Amino acid sequence: MSVTDDAIEAIKQMIVDGELKPGDRLPREADLAERLGLSRNSLREAVRALSLIHVLDVRRGDGTYVTSLDPSVLMDAMGFVVDFHRDDTVLQFFEARRVIEPVVTGMAATRMPREDIDGLATLLDSLGDSPTAEELVANDLEFHRRIAAGAGNPVLASLVESVSGRTQRARTWRGITQEGVTERTLSEHRAIQQALAQRQTDVAIALATVHIAGVEQWIRQTLVDQP
User: Fold this and answer.
1) Which of 11, 20, 19 is nearest to 38 (CA)?
2) What is the topology classification, in CATH, of domain 88-224?
């Protein structure tokens, strides 16, 4: 389990134990980090993650508060996390992606129209400097969908979209909890786009394999290998 996951668990436990109640303001960052034995950076990432799934409400210039914890909101938020950590089959979908998508990417290197390859660069530029996890994943899904379509095989494109869609929650949780994931994802996507633009089939296949395997390895460490 990552340090950020430890921080998330610590804050959740304070809520479950009743130490933090709906509407309560969290202690100062420095005080809470020291009390929980965490770095301020890990605590900050945990707060960000819990705010994205609506357990905490970050009010700029005011502080961070526990939400009303309306049962429907809380169940949806916690269900997001619990479902991800219990669903071992997500790793199987990433394994399937690693087998299928590099081949499809190699096909796109020879078949994808130039204007569509240029459109991939525009798509990546549209993400901006500080996207949310949801925005990053939406951009990621669209990037891979366009490449699959560019391979010129509708059957493979449909298969990629189906398999990729089943990994959305895992990718969102990675975007929330893994430090530097936005920069890494964009860097890898840009490298793939450039390989496609240069019609470098073997390079495109290799880059796609490394890209997907990196996410798969994170899933394996976070989901499967944790005690």
Assistant:
1) 11
2) Four Helix Bundle (Hemerythrin (Met), subunit A) (1.20.120)
